[in-house]
Amino acid sequence: MENMVKISKAIGLLGLIFFTSVTARADHAHEEIKLFRDYMAKAEQGDPMAQVNVANSYYFGTGVEKDIKQALVWYRKAAEQGNHWGQVILGAAYYGGEGVKKDFGQAVYWYRKAADQGNVKAQYHLAICYTNGEGVAKDGPEAAKWYRMAAVQGDSGAQYGLGRCYYLGEGVTKDSTQAVVWYRKAADQGDAKAQFYLAICYFNGQGVAKDKAEAVTWYQKAAEQGDAKAQYFLATCYAGGEGVAKDSAKAVEWYRKAADGGDEFAQFEMAMRYESGEGVVRDLEQAFLWGRKSADQGNSFAQNYLGVRYDKGNGVVQDLTCAVSLYRKAAVQGNAQAQYNLANCYLEGRGVVKDVAQAVSWYRKAAELGDPSAQHNLGHLYFDGIGVEVDYVQAASWYRRGAEQLDMESMHHLGDCYASGQGVPKDEAEAYAYWNLAGVTYVDARKNLLLLEKKLSREEIAAGQRRTKELQKEIEAKIATKKAAN
Fold first, then answer.
1. For the whole model, what pTM was predicted?
2. I want to staple 403 with a disulfide (CB 3.0 to 4.6 A). Which of 3, 128, 297, 411 is the partner?
3. Which residue range(s) make up the domain with 398?
4. Residue 203, in any domain of the structure
5. How large is the C-alpha radius of gyration of the chain?
């Protein structure tokens, strides 16, 4: 079906003209047959346009029995006479391997002949070949050139393609403003991909003033055409109340459409909704099913989620080996939570042979990606010399990185370091501040703080309390800066 669509798209306006004439002149089958015979008579005399119409008749089975091979015979006759429609359709046949062996080189050969005559469909498809390196060396500037030729003739696919060139800086100087210009031209013609990317530009303020409400408008247009990515992003807008009033029911409605359309992120979101019961009745079985659909597409978040389910035996029979397998699939994709979970399995020998060196390696990967729990655990391994040499400076450094993300265990242990002077200069005011912040939820930190207060003077306690307020502001500022950067 994919290849059929490619040839049909290559026919483009010619197909529309052909069917319009058939509808107007042939209300019954015998009239379609007569029309076909008229075309054939002219085609046999060498009329290239009649040859294309005969080919169309065979291709669509109008007035004659459908026969792809015969269609290609007549498309080729027209193409060899220089008819650009025959050339572009023959190129599409070679590109998709419909009726002939797939051959990108031959596709480019025929596309170029038609493109040189100004055929907009051929120019667009030739641009795609240069973009993907199919039948010709990948060449961004050449792709952009052909996209532009077709785009200025009004081809929406080419306008979208040229917009993407400007958006990504492929073959042209990166220019978000120009990207928006071409996305808009295609979007106004109803191109769903262009509508989706135009929405992204409005949402992020790329090449146009940031306007989330306008972004929602374009997401909606693309979503209503069945674009799964647009449906997912529209759902996310409803979920977060960005550019539109927050509406969990609407969010689930669009997440489900996107998930049904195969979007892996929407499938994972449906799993999370059923897991939490947000916007739907909580259903762990449905959560697992949607998680599996997403994981099977390689989504690392879903793989980690299923790994946790198998690890804990949550709604499924506990299977630690399966959990480790899923964690690993997600971890090698750079999922920090999965890396942390896999490290735990290696450290404890759960579902895998205990291997502290592997645990250290995976904790480090997760920690470097910013996972605060991994940062704390890596710090702990350095502090106790587990799998690595004892290194209090490294321990304190990793505790600090976790503490800066409000990880309470990291704060507690960094306070320990300041209290004892291990890895950092001894500083009881600093220890007081970290234990004071961690003590909000961490019992051991509160215990340490109480013991410290017994040995401090009233002035020293006051200094510790002042430092607590300062430290809290410092951490909040760092979190805000990091959030703004992302």
1. 0.85
2. 411
3. 370-486
4. no
5. 32
